[in-house]
Amino acid sequence: MNAVKPANYAKVKAQELQGKLYLAAKENPKRRFHALYDKIYREDILWEAWRRVKSNKGSGGVDGITIEHIEEVYGAERFVAEIREKLISGTYHPLPARRIEIPKPDGKLRPLGIPPIIDRVVQMATKIVIEPIFETDFKNCSYGFRPKRSQHGAIRHIRREIRKGVCWVVDIDIKGYFDNIQHEKLMKLVEQRINDRRILKLLWKWLKAGFVKEDQFYETELGSPQGSVISPLLSNIYLNYLDTIWENKFTEIGAIVRYADDLVILCKTKEQAMKSIDVLKAVFSKLEIQINTSKSKLINLWDDKIGFDFLGMHHRKIPKQVKGIERYILRSYPSKKAMKKMKEKVKEVTEPRNRLFWTMNKMVEELNPKIQGWRNYYGLDSFADLFLNKIDWYIRKRLMLFWNKKRNRRKKHSNSRLAGIVAQYSGLKKLVG
DNA sequence: TTGTGGGTTAC
RNA sequence: AUUGUAACCCACAA
Description:
By secondary structure, the protein is α+β, with helices and mostly antiparallel strands. The protein is built from 15 helices and 11 strands. Helix 12 packs parallel to helix 14.
């Protein structure tokens, strides 16, 4: 008799394992785990890993196998079973990643290494098993790529610190962080917690898997490929070295808040800020990474003349009347870059050129989810309403333009009035209000 | 409560 | 064509 397994059986079992590993690691901070490899080929773990990779709907790797192909031709059951066999017999070997380059917001190119689906699944299984162990070591100041931690958490952390009287902010950009991670140093840090040789070997192989670009194979002797599943975790393990040193020795000179490779240090005095930069340089030289001096800044937050960008928001002290006295309060609102990006997205959707046959409803349908998303992200601070209002106004202006073009007429009525009517009858959402 | 589908953000 | 991790939101289905 077979007991019927619920649909989320694998998910629950994976969570159970993660909980156990988390507690075991927390209980003994020095413990090095050795029996982990047999966990990654557990059927429930592999199924959960496959489910997660599948739900990302990413494209195929260098072997050309796509998620669609596995599901509809090959069969997920067979795919997972074969991965399991390969892991058990030790015949699993990663393939090189497929290298592509995508444009970054600043116009430069970001190299991406896309591993084949099979490697993504094995990496995900490994991540499920080892992540809870490292989670116990990660510090409170680290927010990027971590479960249950968000950009909003990082921003709230900053706002909390600044309310304590911080005036000096060190804003650090690391030169090509992912691409400069040293394999040997990273693995030394991994080995502080893991001594399962088969797991370590897997991690080595993924780091050294290389990539293929235009049918040419390239080796990777440095860096962790952006696009692979474990890279974000590995990058946090690497920089946790900094977090740990900071928490043990330097909390007095400032508070560090980190989102992946983007970090700020919040200090009360200029001297502390300068000292922080020295400490960072010393730690970075040990990790063999470098500060991008042209993008890093030291900011004095004492008035409303200057602020800093972090996680898509601009943070600056703005005067506010509180019970008759003027006070400077930290405000967080969309950065110039973010404003530009939102306007561009709106323009893209409302471009009348090829959308003339669209109905107003269709356009609103397209716009509403975006508005919802922006609202959720930037609506953190009520001061941001000032800026979000501008975007609302811009959306209505663009919609007006579309409406007039469609009706093939020049504006006869007041734009703002018509825009109001248009919005009212079409169910367009607002960023503010 | 769980499972789909759409979207935003960050890096 | 565009990968990855994470958070959040909305809609739908039982």
